[in-house]
Amino acid sequence: MTAAGEIKIKIGNEKLVKVTEKASAKLTSLLTRQGRPQGALRVAVIGGGCSGLQYKMDLVDGPANRDIMVESAGVKVVIDPKSALFVSGSLLDFSDDLQKGGFKVTNPNAVAHCSCGESFSA
């Protein structure tokens, strides 16, 4: 029996998602700037985009009920169980490139990508 309001999470490892040093540095900077140094990056897979699925990323205070939390390169990443099925084995990187900069997910489960690089199918 759990107390009311207690959050149940699972602890995952880098087999689910791994964060590069460059992505870790950017995430740490963003979380600190938002006043949430203990926060996390939420990665979700939602329907949409040219290929059917796309990533949604948000900075959050911490995990929600049933989330899987992974600590990689000194930062926390939280993923809901359904999204975890799609991102298992992924690498999260960050690029400063002016044209295609930002956070990028390299996902071994993606069987097709759209030309804009913003969505995939699995």
UniProtKB/TrEMBL annotation:
<feature type="domain" description="Core">
    <location>
        <begin position="17"/>
        <end position="117"/>
    </location>
</feature>
<dbReference type="InterPro" id="IPR016092">
    <property type="entry name" value="ATAP"/>
</dbReference>
<dbReference type="InterPro" id="IPR017870">
    <property type="entry name" value="FeS_cluster_insertion_CS"/>
</dbReference>
<dbReference type="GO" id="GO:0005506">
    <property type="term" value="F:iron ion binding"/>
</dbReference>
<dbReference type="GO" id="GO:0016226">
    <property type="term" value="P:iron-sulfur cluster assembly"/>
</dbReference>
<dbReference type="Pfam" id="PF01521">
    <property type="entry name" value="Fe-S_biosyn"/>
</dbReference>
<dbReference type="GO" id="GO:0051537">
    <property type="term" value="F:2 iron, 2 sulfur cluster binding"/>
</dbReference>
<dbReference type="GO" id="GO:0051539">
    <property type="term" value="F:4 iron, 4 sulfur cluster binding"/>
</dbReference>
<dbReference type="InterPro" id="IPR000361">
    <property type="entry name" value="ATAP_core_dom"/>
</dbReference>
<protein>
    <submittedName>
        <fullName>Iron-sulfur cluster assembly accessory protein</fullName>
    </submittedName>
</protein>
<dbReference type="InterPro" id="IPR035903">
    <property type="entry name" value="HesB-like_dom_sf"/>
</dbReference>
